Amino acid sequence: MIGLRDGTISSDGLDTLKLGYEFVRDEIGLRREHLKRHAAHDHPQDDKVVVVKTAQSA
């Protein structure tokens, strides 16, 4: 927000950063789901998968 105010970041730059952030966040979510689905199949002895959520990912 400071970069927008002082002109070091354009609104287009902020939109690009937001798009990149959302892409990475979604990919991490897809990977977590994949790991949850395949954990019991790939490692039957490890039937529990723990997902830790941060305040931002909740």
Task: Walk me through what this model shows.
The longest helix is centred in the middle third of the chain and has 32 residues, at 11-42. The protein has one domain (2-42). The chain contains two helices and no strands. It has helices at residues 2-6, 11-42. The chain is elongated, with a radius of gyration of 18 Å. It is mainly α and 58 residues long. The protein starts with a helix and ends in a 16-residue tail after the last helix. The model has no long low-confidence stretch (mean pLDDT 81). 64% of the residues lie in helices and 0% in strands.
What is the gist of this entry?
The chain is mostly helical. The chain has helices spanning 2-6, 11-42.
Give the termini distance in whole angstroms. Answer: 23 Å
In percent, how much strand structure appears in the residues? under 5%
Can you give the mean pLDDT? 81
- Oligomer type: single chain
Structural class: mainly alpha
- Taking pLDDT < 50 over at least 5 consecutive residues as the criterion, the unreliable ranges are none
Number of distinct beta strands: 0
**Structural domains: how many:** 1
Keyword list:
mainly alpha
Task: Give me the secondary-structure topology.
Blueprint: H1 2-6, H2 11-42
